[in-house]
Amino acid sequence: MRWDRCGEIQRQKVRAYLVLGLLSAALAVVLHLLYHRQTWETAIPNDCFAAAAVEPGAPRLVCLTFDDGPGVNTEPLLAILEEEKVPATFFVCAQPVNRPYLPLVRTIVQQGHQVAMHSASHQYAQIYQSTDAFWQDIKELRRQLEPYLSLGDLTWLRFPGGSTNTVSHRYGGRRIMEELKAQTEEKGWHWIDWNVCGEDATASHPDAEQILRNIRQDAADKTVCVVLLHDTMTAGQTVEALPGIIGWFREQGYHFCTVAQMEQLQGSLQSAGE
Ligand SMILES: [Zn+2]
Fold first, then answer.
1. Residue 37 and residue 42: Cα distance in Å, rounded?
2. What is the pLDDT of residues 127-162, one digit of tens each?
3. Is residue 104 predicted with pLDDT exceeding 70?
4. Å from CA of 22 to ligand 1 middle
5. Residues 131, 138 contacting (CB under 8 angstroms)
6. For the chain, where are the E strands, in sequence order?
7. What are residue 62's DSSP bridge partners?
């Protein structure tokens, strides 16, 4: 009788272990699926990610990008870029503050830089209200840029706040950035974020030395750097910092290119064995 009870306890233990084992396996499967669901959700082509995913030994590339201009500091920045023979990319706006400077877009193109789209109004509450509102804003931006360049060359876009911003959810729902990214690709256009930030437009108003420090810190160990800077009214320290920024990337052996040139240049430098 006692032995029977012992046997029963043993069987109960075995059953308990079996149930525990099955539950653990089920949990592992659920976690695995959740992980991959997240990957699927972010599987939309991301030019910034593609840029960063370069194998070791690949050429070092840097794209200097200036957002929110043109403005009062665009010309001084262009003068430095010309003197240093460095190409850059300007993600432009057409806000009232930009309008007197819009003809500079022609100069930017003539000097071999890339002009790309950022936003006409740059008002999050307006542009992220819906995907229609966003594309309406871009249409307005292109309309205002049309006198100064060929619209066919205007195929690159940087979303205000970046492609992963969550401020947009407040106005257009949780899916709006995913939808906008997919629609950009559907148009045959490209979008790009940044992976190095000068933090030159933050409320702390960093001086030129701090901007360079921010960049050096972010750029460390990156083969491809897409550097976020600004050519707005408040970017006087960015002008001060630019020669030092260019000098530092040169010392580190980086090649300068526009965002549109990046992919092409990666291929040619690799085949040249640089
Ligand atoms: Zn911006």
1. 9
2. 999 999 999 999 999 999 999 999 999 999 999 999
3. yes
4. 51
5. no
6. 61-67, 89-93, 114-119, 156-157, 190-191, 196-197, 224-230, 255-256
7. 225, 256
